[in-house]
Write a structure and sequence with these properties.
The chain contains 19 helices and 17 strands. By secondary structure, the chain is of the alpha/beta class. The chain has 3 domains: 216 residues, no CATH class; 85 residues, no CATH class; 153 residues, no CATH class. Strand 11 and strand 12 form a beta hairpin. The chain is elongated.
Length: 580
């Protein structure tokens, strides 16, 4: 009987285990070299690494190193070498390759054993998701034991297809918290020389062991770039995950730290997406957009033939351990809201009525689903004036996600739209008034209004009957956006990143609005805050205003005072918004 998937399924790549102490594919190489005690072996590995780096013109990862060692071991079977008969073999006299391969596999295994409970604390958010999604399906291409250790730490029950021997029926067990599909094998799985498959949850750091039955067994791990050999568990798991993802119950696949180097997995996802039209991917990792664009978006990258996943991927270019606590109650929640709004508006359109898409766009902006927003905006562009608070939010969140994803040109365009709209609302439509404090003789206040459509009295030239948006409304917009940008900068975890300038600008705007409180500030405080930014003529006009009050003629002084105050504030705001 086919297993029905959870609504949310996780797919874990190497980036999901970095916080657990498992090296990245690149740092693995340096750590392996440092671990080699035999000088002959170390010199051989260094020579191979140096040659590969020169060929690639970049640093190399453990996957390429292992693949190269395997090919060097079997170099006589490589037909291409027959076409280069006169080229010398640069590793002549260096260490034999098979011992190096075994050493490297042993090293990979030793690093994949996650012992400390402290190292898996960053996975705690799985507990909250399991409460709603029990049993939660987790697909992993990692050999490490981080998920198993997590389950052990929090007394959770998991099934991985083994009891002691391979038995996929265990996935059907009741009272299971996690179903774990390790499609590339595990450091605890072994294949015996008699064709059996067994799980040994013991601390064995070697790649090969001997069982008490006399059988010899080797770790069942499909190493990167390795050709497929028949291995029953791995083949059955691939078939099983395909059924899971095709299931109507599966809506969201959260892919963490995976580069899609395995073409067969990419093809499985394309096929699944054709059949399960409601499936959406959340791609988490520093290079999320590049991976989506280069590996998933097109069947043929050079010809730009759109795949079945085009437009259905949310790219979150953040460190998993940083963003994971936000996945359930923010990203998934906002995506579900956005799709619910979208469905309701489609129904309205079917009835022949006018659909309003702004609510769905706002939810998708919160979820950083940039492609969906662009699709809707092309079809239904919104009026800046009517929806200006939401448009400010959308422009800024689009800019942050795109810039964080390396789409700097497109992101900068949205940030420019944000600044242009802010300039229209705050700089062009600012109204600053010098007013008396009610009931307090000789005391004055400066009153601020933004997005103020001013109608001037034809006789007095003073504002009358104006329609305004208060300072609080702008605070309620800018402060959360400043926090949003700051948090995303922390998700990236780099002190200097392309979001720094946006964060700095938003922080200045927040501070500017902060001193205005409810939109009014005492004249004394205003002078103190603005220091050298206000001209001496302000003091002279204030004195003239005092004198003119006695005879009841203050119109000219007020008009001149307000005009100077407006220009002072416009200049300050232009410096913040950087609008010429």
């Amino acid at each position: 009987m086919a297993i029905e998937s959870s609504e949310v399924v996780f797919f874990l790549g190497a980036g999901a285990s970095v916080k657990a102490g498992v090296p990245t594919t690149y740092s693995f190489v340096n750590e392996y070299i440092k671990s080699i005690k035999d000088l002959g072996k170390r010199d051989t590995i260094k020579k191979i690494v140096k040659t590969l780096e020169k060929w690639k013109n970049d640093k190399i990862d453990i996957e390429l190193l292992l693949e190269t060692l395997t090919k060097l071991k079997n170099k006589d079977q490589e037909p291409l070498l027959s076409f280069y008969p006169d080229r010398p073999f640069i590793l002549e006299g260096y260490y034999e390759k098979e011992p190096l391969i075994n050493d490297l596999k042993d090293f990979i295994k030793s690093k994949a054993i996650v012992e400390s409970e402290e190292k898996i604390q960053y996975l705690q958010s799985f507990r909250e998701i399991i409460e709603e999604e029990r049993p939660l399906d987790i697909i992993s291409v990692n050999y490490d034991t981080s998920i198993e250790q997590f389950c052990n730490c929090y007394r959770l029950t998991y099934q991985d297809g083994f009891d002691v021997y391979w038995n996929p029926a265990v996935f059907q067990k009741e009272h299971t918290d996690i179903r774990l599909y390790k499609i590339h094998g595990s450091v605890m799985w072994y294949q015996s020389d008699r064709g059996g498959y067994i799980k040994l949850p013991v601390m064995v750091r070697e790649n090969k062991v001997q069982l008490i039955t006399g059988e010899k067994a080797e770790n069942l791990m499909l190493y990167p770039m390795q050709k497929w050999d028949y291995a029953e568990p791995l083949l059955e798991l691939l078939v099983e995950i395909k059924h899971l993802l095709e299931s109507e119950s599966c809506k969201y696949l959260i892919v963490v730290g995976y580069s899609f180097r395995d073409d067969h997995i990419t093809r499985i996802l394309w096929d699944v997406a054709r059949k399960n039209r409601e499936l959406h991917l959340l791609l988490i990792g520093p290079h999320a957009y590049q991976i989506y664009s280069n590996k998933l978006k097109y069947y043929n990258t050079s010809e730009k033939i759109p795949s079945s996943l085009e437009g259905r991927v949310i790219c979150l270019p953040y460190l998993f351990e940083k963003v994971f606590p936000y996945v359930k109650n923010h990203y998934l929640k906002k995506l579900k809201e956005g799709f619910a709004f979208e469905t309701s508006q489609h129904q309205i359109e079917i009835r022949g009525e006018k659909a309003i898409w702004i609510a769905s766009i706002q939810s998708f902006a919160d979820a950083e689903y940039t492609e969906k927003i662009e699709t809707i905006l092309k079809r239904e562009p919104f009026d800046d004036e009517m929806y200006w608070p939401i448009n400010l939010e959308i422009y800024l969140k689009m800019a942050v996600n795109l810039i964080a994803n390396g789409e700097k040109e497109k992101g900068t365009k949205y940030f420019r739209d944000f600044c242009n709209l802010l300039n229209k609302l705050m700089v062009e439509r600012i109204d600053v008034n010098f007013i008396d404090v009610p009931g307090m003789l000789g005391l004055y206040q400066i009153e601020f209004k933004f997005n103020n459509i001013i109608n001037y009295d034809s006789i007095t030239k003073l504002p009358s009957g104006s329609s305004s948006s208060g300072v609080k409304q702008f605070k309620d917009i800018i402060e959360p956006l400043s926090e949003f940008c700051q948090i995303r900068g922390e998700f990236i975890n780099r002190s200097e990143n392309d979001l720094s300038k946006i964060s700095e600008k938003l922080e200045k705007m927040k501070n500017y609005l902060g001193i205005l409180r409810d939109g009014k500030i005492s004249y004394e405080e205003y002078v103190k805050f603005r220091e050298n930014k206000i001209p001496d003529s302000i003091k002279q006009l204030t004195d003239q205003y005092e004198i003119s009050k006695k005879n009841g003629h203050t119109i000219n002084q007020l008009r001149d005072l307000n005009a100077i105050l407006v220009e002072v504030e416009r200049k300050i705001l232009r410096e913040i918004i950087n609008k010429e």
